[in-house]
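Repro:
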Amino acid sequence: MNDPIAPFDRNALRRHRARAARIDNADAEFLFAEVGERLIDRLDDIRRSFPVALEIGARRGALRTALSGRNGIVTLIQADPSPAMAAAGTGPRLAMDEEALPFGNASLDLVLSNLALHWTNDLPGALAQIRRALRPDGLLLAAMIGGDSLIELRGVLAEAEAGVTGGMSPRLSPLVDVRDAGALLQRAGFALPVVDIDRIDVSYPDALALMRDLRAMGEANALAERPRTLARRDVMLAAAALYAERHGDAEGRIPATFDIVYLSGWAPDASQQKPLRPGSGQISLTQVLGEDDVS
């Protein structure tokens, strides 16, 4: 059910993903494929076994082959908020709302999330549920769209609509800032939290092609306060013209920026390293750096 004060319409999100599941456009999956590979690369750096794993935002299940058997994964459950997406894959699949995890406490060893958590209305609550579902020393490894993603599109849409209609409608989602993500992990109870950001720059022939791709990805506007009518053609054309004028290159192509925020955190366990107590160091900085450097 949708919270009346929540930013996102979750039913609209499921409809958008169902529509994307029906579109046979492999090119539109490029961002999820690229970020999925980068998540797997990060998992390769961890020398641990995770027998029971959950992937949140699995879409059509493209990562199953790459994940199965990796890091000792025996059971991989792939989940998506859209039943249509969940039905498109193979193996254990689950249509699941990431804001209401149907898993018991300490039942999972690993939770992966590939570009799904940016649609949650209660991100701290979702992270807390993931933390409770992880066994001690279990791992969360997630990627979400954040930062200054689509900053070019945000700017020209706002300016074009203001110029054509004299007002502005909510069209693009609020995104998590990398500086806030670490605090969210700590608030949810994760140990050893790590957050970093990676920028992916994509080139499109024009702004309308970018907007079509977002729709084919299932990433169309799902704001609860979005306009319920189709976008005005004159606004879209004005935005496309501004995009080309402000950001187009010599060949007439336009860039699109995607900032991917990566989060990792561990369910607390006694075996994990602990930071030293402040003031407990036994070596003076003078011994290490020399008296002049310390001065």
